[in-house]
């Protein structure tokens, strides 16, 4: 038998409401794979059992791009008349209640450039099965609610594939005599097919046994390509910290005797939580001081944590269907955020982490939620699930989980988690089940809270207050609304926790007397559930300055008519460090909006002394964590400023922000130099929060100083570049040199530094990515320069990291150049999306999203953006992935 299935049908949406339980469960899966790069032979034997509770009567299997050699049901070859195939779906009707299916397929890993299913990477074989990659290996009921026990036998040439890994425990290995060998793996846990994994090839590992809290020893391994063993230590340390943290914070133990991490340079996403065999993008594993920055170190820690934490939130309890994706992702992001915050430990350290997370949410998720791809945390429909691994599912999903934490408190949340596992361990469930566990454990009615899952869009909360000096009352009125999003014109009120404090004139928190506040309490969680509500504080001795939405207690945009003086007061005194930072951002945003308007009107630009003074005071306040000061001194990004406008003018925003930077640099020069000198970190590199914070502030100071066009600051950057003993300092110096605004003669020296950097690190793929990225976002890099860089021998679209380093960075993070008035940026974008569509639809669709907000630009730009979108939409053989994104953008 020989057949191929190709999906040629037009993209069609699938709906959450259409969920039907599978007609058959799968109990066991035995797989045998003869591994080869050109060709891999897969034999699968599975036992199925009819699900009497389903309306579905057929055996339904999915397959994609398979060459099928054999299909046997209970030992008998299936005849063509006994099954049907449509697109990716095979149906076998009239099957008995108990079935053994035997399937043989052939696949071609080297031809798999989509990096989904089984593919080749640097001569090794790697799988990626989430969300629907398993069907590219064999026919299977490839849906997350079908959970089975897997045994996997791997056979391969010993020289080419000395290491053979799969999920669970290694139960047997040996020689096959003919230069080939085998390994047999058994995963003792039921799992959905998306968690299946194999890795085969020339890999080496750092390993360690680690004593678990329950006394068992677990073998931990980090596998990398030979030559990278000097870069695995941080990942190993992070893994051990993750295991300990989940034991201590949530009482969750590692359930396997062996836990493996594998790093590959070819990966569509950050990492993948396959049971016992996590597969990572090298970006989130490899680190040593000379190649990785502080941000890389922190990223590794959080992603190692994230994937490890999935073992409980995702693997032991998984998703019923892909509409429930945020059940595992939102929860696991919340867990990794808390992990990173707990590791820093201090209150400001936690706040710094919180600010960083909120920055991402605002910059990327708020924008998504206001555009054509806006979707609820639990979507109602999609065309291609790969397009729904979004900041809404992940980051907003995490904010939703954080709101339970805020509403129920630390212990209440833990009770909810315990109840969730007690009820659902081993099951595939829905977001509603998580909500029910939280409600039941906390004894709370969380019915209305469901709207956070069903309604898209970023809610607006308008706050206003009236102080009554005679009665000593302070009445705070909160009013909520939510803009329309595709398919959702009207929204119902959300259940919004708004954490509030009141500051006195001396900057101290006033004690709060209001419903729900205990004596002495200085922060209270108000629950806004109606369209508008008034909360009254009693015994308020003086008119306070309100500190609203402390610690960003809900993913909303909050408006309050603050005066500049009130904001400066909050920036100087708020006991909630998040809101201190927030006050600074509000002050800055106001000014950047005005400056942008001034640029557009051709007026003179100026920055007021009051704002500069507030920044200076923060910069010089050495009682504050340097990381916190760095965040306050960082102006809102051009993308965040853009959200303030109905019609975005990227060049004017850029000019305004650059002006503000130069003015700050000018006014604070001496203070910046002092901050630079006071935050040097001599001695051996450590990625710990304290020295990393110093480097962050020092390098921010350097970047401001580089806006001061003087030989002296250029020399400062050049010396730092030459003498840097770690990548954080080296890269920061190179950034400063490349963006230096002075004498054009200095450009030569900057170019020389760029060339030196490349030469020194040409063999380190992750550093070459940085080299491309740094240039992609440089303000002088225009479309022509990007095209030139695309001709560099090290550039390729075939590797996702490399493609992203140059092209994504340019399209998403260099707005003033990408939106060149002649439309050349959009033409480049269209070419890239079309080229990537043929290679890797998932990566192409991500780049396609760069045009999401095209309706926010001037009519002249809009017209050019629309033309580019239409060009992509009209391309033949467009993947479902790209088609969905551009169709929705054009709708
Ligand atoms: N589930 C992975 C994570 O969040 C992300 C991922 C999705 C990786 C799809 C690969 C493919 O940890
Ligand atoms: Zn995840």
Question: What does the model show?
Answer:
- This is Aminopeptidase N.
- One of its GO terms (molecular function) is aminopeptidase activity.
- Belongs to the peptidase M1 family.
- With 891 residues, the chain is an alpha+beta fold.
- The protein contains 26 helices and 33 strands.
- Strands 1, 3, 4, 6, 7, 10, 13, 15, 16 and 17 form a 10-stranded mixed sheet that branches. It has a 5-stranded mixed sheet with strand order 19-20-21-23-22, with helices on one face. Strands 11-12-18-14 form a 4-stranded antiparallel sheet, with no helix packed on it.
- Strand 22 (271-272) and strand 23 (277-281) form a beta hairpin.
- It is globular, with a radius of gyration of 28 Å.
- 50% of the residues are buried.
- Zinc ion (ZN) binds at residues 306, 310, 329, 332.
Distance between the termini: 44 Å
Biggest sheet architecture: 10 strands, mixed
> What is the count of β-strands?
33
Low-confidence stretches are 1-10
Q: How much helicity do the residues have?
A: 40-55%
Secondary-structure-based class equals alpha+beta
- Return Rg in Å: 28 Å
Output the number of helix runs.
26
General form: globular
Bound molecules: phenylalanine, zinc ion
Query: What fraction of the residues are assigned to beta strands by DSSP?
Result: 15-25%
Domain Aminopeptidase N-like N-terminal: 91-195
Domain Peptidase M1 alanyl aminopeptidase Ig-like fold: 457-560
Domain Peptidase M1 membrane alanine aminopeptidase: 235-452
Domain Peptidase M1 alanyl aminopeptidase C-terminal: 564-891
